[in-house]
Amino acid sequence: MVRVGQSVGAPGPRPRGIRDGGDDGDGEDQELETAACRLPKGLADLSFEELLEGAPGPRPRGIRDGGDDGDGEYQELETAACRLPKGLADLSFEELLELQSQVGTKTQKALVARNSTKNPGSRGSALNPCVADKHKPLEMSAKVRVPFLRQVVPISKKVARDPRFDDLSGEYNPEVFDKTYEFLNDIRAREKELVKKQLKKHQSEEQRGKLQQLLQRLEQQEAAQRKRKHQQELHLALKQEQRARAQQGHRPYFLKKSEQRQLALAEKFKELKRSKKLESFLSRKRRRNAGKDRRHLPSSKE
To answer: Which Pfam families match (predicted)?
Structure first.
């Protein structure tokens, strides 16, 4: 136990050579210095945080295990150190003794409590990611490693929209589409004439090859468009015929896809015969079929 009239951190009987100075200031200073010198040397190796937390670790050197006087003195020093406020962790024992002797115990505790409230940057507040204001920057711990690629400003993700499969574009209607983009036919016709003129001017084989491929692609697109338009006209004619039969009271009959292909082939033969290209078409068809049959024949090596 700490005796009345003694300084904290210096328990035990008053050392020899110290006179009672009464109210004399020199006597009090000598008592403080002597009490500080009587601290065991092993306590200098311990941090003040360990003493305050009550975990001083191994017993310092210079403290004897034998005898009741040494153990009691060390326990009194440890108990007195644990009772000190945590705000005095940066002060040495000599400064603590001098401070307590000058201002008193109650004043010292109030001063430490006031200083601790003025330090907002404690470890607990740094680890707490919550902030009072949402516009205030987030306070993070300095021990957390910052990633190399981090998103400082949130970016809204761009959503790709394909008009072919989007309901906002509506359903595909070939008649409406061709009527809306009918002006493209004039542009393609002008491009085709321009390519033909450039094909006559250029003498380089490389340039002529590129222009020939471009002209062939334009002609194929034009032929595909004519074929699609012809199929649309045929489909529209069949629909009108079915509507007329329904108005006459007949039961509607819908053609199968195979029957529609046969009708389209018959129309194609009529068109080829009208343009006198039927023989060339049939000769190409025979050669193609002969090549297919030749693949299935056994080879001469077998």
So the answer is: RRP36
